[in-house]
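During the second half of the funding period, the structural biology subgroup turned its attention to how the target accommodates small molecules. The most pressing case was fe (ii) ion, which had performed well in the primary screen but for which no bound structure existed. We therefore specified the complex as follows and requested a full 3D prediction, including the ligand pose.
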Amino acid sequence: MDAITFLTNDHKVVRAMLEELAATTKRAVKRRTELLQKIAAELEAHTQIEEEIFYPAFKEAGEKSDDDKMFFEAMEEHRTAGDLVLPDLLQTEVGSDQFSGRAKVLKELIDHHAKEEEKEMFPRARKLLGKAELNELGERLAARKAELI
Ligand SMILES: [Fe+2]
Ligand SMILES: [Fe+2]
């Protein structure tokens, strides 16, 4: 599977779980807890493999300042979601109203980020990286994710 298909499939899985989480009520403590654990594991693995494998390949292949900008903006969005919003949510009482609000913010952040990757960075990566390299990156992403999860 090529890298872009692999990462896009990851997005679908995590976005569906975030959608479900954001729709839960504060009474759904057990479901919230389960979903949150899965989302955290998926998001952490996904951002890590992108930062270790895909983003460096994209940056290396980049030709224009717009490519660099895309890279740095994506890194900042990972930082916001992974270092600030997700850890905050993990510390929040699952049966609280704060949790509902924070889950929604994380969902919106990830929706925005995944859309930018899929609409801007990935199409650009298809132009910059050849088919063979995208396939090879896809294999490395899958192998690294299997190690992490
Ligand atoms: Fe990302
Ligand atoms: Fe992604």
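Two results from this model are relevant to the next phase. The helical segments are 3-23, 29-61, 65-90, 97-128, 131-148. The radius of gyration is 16 Å.
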